[in-house]
Design a protein that fits this description.
Blueprint: H1 5-15, E1 20-26, E2 29-33, H2 34-44, E3 49-54, E4 57-65, H3 69-78, E5 82-88, E6 101-107, H4 115-118, E7 126-131, E8 137-143, E9 148-154, H5 156-170, E10 174-177, H6 179-182, H7 185-195, E11 198-201, H8 209-220, H9 234-251, E12 262-263, H10 274-280, H11 295-299, H12 305-316, H13 322-337, H14 339-350, H15 355-363, H16 369-388, H17 395-401, H18 408-417, H19 438-448, H20 450-465, E13 471-475, E14 479-485, E15 497-501, E16 505-509
Parallel strand pairs: 1-5, 7-10, 9-12, 10-11
Antiparallel strand pairs: 1-2, 2-4, 3-4, 5-6, 7-8, 8-9, 13-14, 14-16, 15-16
Helix pairs in contact: 8-9, 14-16, 15-16, 16-18, 19-20
């Protein structure tokens, strides 16, 4: 059966993303059709309607507004679905026939970036596992919303319990498995049951060692694996390479936020098995799993989301290196003993939003006007934070003070370009500051002062052409036009485009 051209376009895109619900951009809405529409309408509790698919066939359809899509996507992903975002990738005004559309991002349980669902002071991890001989395992994991990317491995004699203890600490939302692990039904069931993560099998070629090595070196700009600390870690290379490929396939722009890779070893932090972590109530109460009443809830007085996530990582991974412990304690002691400096630091931090996640949203193209203003306000606070730390003696604090400069030009650019209190969505208008762009100012005046602008255009065209009887008019067929009587046709300039011929006049349009 042949459907309408638009439905056929939808079906072609859907064929490439059969395992995801396809959000198909049509104007200001993401529309879903066929089975996707039925599933989404049920899960999101929205109306299921129908659309003419051609030849009298009614196609199931539902949709959500683009400006509110993030919340709907989060609900679908939270229920175990993948969502493929299909956008218009060419200007409709320049398109011949259908506007070209492509999937620009696939959102999965491990790549969700909605802080409302994740929590400001929690991470949401995507992990990948590569298996080797004798039970050896490589593990890579990332939080795409913050750009963290870490990798480790264990030989066969250590891998078993150490892997499960690490997975219990991370609690990844999604785990990518190589062919061997994906075929182990008991392993996959334990991942889904005890860890609570979605399991995504990956094809064998995704873990091919040479391809993974090349992929990692190219992405991180390293001449060789030695520069990444992975020269003698083949399973770590495979896990990290497969994870990076998955991000490149599903996230496109957002993967730019992953700018560094860190290899960590078992000896960097105190080993704590799952039972010990649970009984110590480090981040959750033993009785009900709630945060309140845990060690973290007692210690956490952080004033930023980034600080809250970092403190959680510190609590879950106690240091064992004496020099690093002393350096951290020196910094804590200095701030604990200087109430004025501590107050200045906390005051500066209070104005800083979640920069890690803001930058990720900018990288993947999902940042809204208010995100950019939040980025500006955060960057404007950095000089105050640097000043509060300028007299610090502890090396950790003094080092931080020296790393906070150089970003003022970014804040100044945003301040010049955007209004202080923009609307939540770009399509609402009123985002660009008056005086920043002459064309935007002119269009805004044309929108707000339409009659005066048209009168001014008519006067300007009369002056330019010398046609005193020239008129600017409008009809519903082709919009605005310039009307010139036949007697003045010889004065019509070459940039006028004839649109309609009348008994006594010609009607023209111009590119303007």
């Amino acid at each position: 059966m042949t459907f309408t051209p638009m439905i056929e376009q939808y079906r072609r895109v859907k064929d490439r993303h059969r395992d995801a619900i396809l959000f198909f951009r049509l104007g200001d809405f993401y529309e879903m059709f066929f089975e996707d529409a039925e599933v989404a309408a049920r899960e999101l509790e929205i109306a299921l309607t129908a659309r003419d698919g051609g030849h009298g066939v009614r196609v199931p359809m539902c949709g959500v507004p683009v400006h509110a899509a993030e919340g709907y996507i989060a609900r679908l992903v939270d229920r175990g679905h993948k969502v493929a975002i299909c956008e218009q990738v060419e200007d409709p005004r320049q398109a011949r026939g259908l506007v070209r559309r492509e999937v620009v991002r696939v959102i999965t349980p491990g790549t969700l970036m909605d802080a409302r669902l994740i929590g400001d002071k929690r991470n949401r991890y995507l992990a990948a596992l590569a298996s080797g001989r004798g039970g050896a395992v490589g593990l890579a994991w990332t939080d795409i919303s913050t750009g963290e990317f870490l990798v480790t491995d264990w030989p066969g004699e250590e891998a078993g319990q150490r892997l499960w203890d690490e997975l219990a600490r991370l609690k990844p939302a999604e785990c990518l498995l190589d062919v061997r692990l994906a075929a182990d039904a008991a392993f996959a069931a334990r991942l889904a049951g005890s860890i609570g993560c979605a399991v995504t099998p990956m094809p064998e070629e995704a873990f091919a060692r040479d391809a993974c090595a090349s992929r990692l070196a190219e992405h991180f700009g390293a001449a060789s694996l030695s520069g990444l600390g992975l020269a003698e870690r083949p399973l770590a290379v495979q896990a990290a390479g497969a994870l990076l490929q998955y991000l490149q396939e599903t996230q496109r722009g957002a993967v730019q936020q992953v700018t560094g890779l860190r290899v960590y070893a078992a000896g960097e932090a105190m080993p704590l098995d799952t039972a010990t972590r649970r009984n110590l109530e480090l981040v959750a109460r033993l009785a009900d799993g709630e945060r309140q009443g845990s060690l973290l809830s007692v210690l956490d007085r952080t004033v930023t989301a980034m600080g809250g996530r970092l403190l959680r990582q510190w609590v879950e991974q106690p240091l064992v290196d004496v020099a690093r412990i002393r350096a951290r304690l020196d910094a804590v002691e200095e701030l604990a003993g200087n109430a004025f400096a501590r107050a200045d630091v906390r005051e500066a931090l209070k104005g800083i939003y979640d920069l890690e996640r803001l930058v990720s949203r900018v990288a993947c193209g999902s940042a809204g006007p208010r995100d950019l203003v939040a980025l500006r306000l955060s960057l404007e606070r950095l000089p105050s934070l640097a000043a509060a730390l300028s007299d610090a003696r502890a090396p950790l604090l003094a080092g931080l003070a020296g790393e906070l400069g150089g970003l003022q030009p970014v804040a100044e650019l945003i301040a010049r370009a955007l209004v202080d209190d923009p609307p939540a969505a770009l399509h609402e208008g009123g985002v660009i500051r008056e005086g920043y762009d002459a064309e935007v100012d002119a269009l805004r005046r044309a929108s707000g002062e339409g009659k005066a602008w048209i009168a001014a255009l008519e006067a300007a065209e009369r002056e330019r052409t010398g046609i005193r009887s020239l008129k600017v008019g409008y009809n519903k067929v082709f919009g605005y036009y310039i009307e010139v009587t036949h007697a003045n046709r010889n004065l019509v300039p070459p940039d006028y485009i004839r649109k309609q011929t009348l008994a006594g006049a010609e009607r023209y349009i111009t590119p303007e």
